[in-house]
Amino acid sequence: MKERLNYSLTLYLTKKQSVMGPEIVQLMQLIQIKGSLTLAAGALGISYNKAWRLLHHAEQALAQPLVVSSAGGVHGGGSNLTTEGQNLMNKYLRLQELSQSAVEHYFQMIFEEN
């Protein structure tokens, strides 16, 4: 049986350097779900330090905060997306969805056997 061709598509938002890509978007989604950078990093299988660096790099490149954190205490600390972070993540995910649909359409048109 002949193996069929497939494709992959990875999007990065860039300025002079990569600002957002799949890894940071996954991290932001997990922060939103778990309410913690530490828990999000663990769920993604990366260190807290790497997660912090990814966010810091993106925030510096964009000149705006993506995540706000609160220190621990009696009720513990946590992290949440800023309004700007939420908006950017939503736009990235929408672009990814539309791009994937377009690529799937053209892939089928070009590579599917009739």
Automatic annotation (TrEMBL):
> Know the name of this protein?
Winged helix-turn-helix domain-containing protein
List, alphabetically, the InterPro entries matched: Molybdate_resp_trans_reg, WH-like_DNA-bd_sf, WH_DNA-bd_sf
Q: Which spans of this chain does the record mark as coiled coil?
A: none
Organism of provenance: Loigolactobacillus jiayinensis
Q: Which SUPFAM superfamilies match?
A: Winged helix' DNA-binding domain
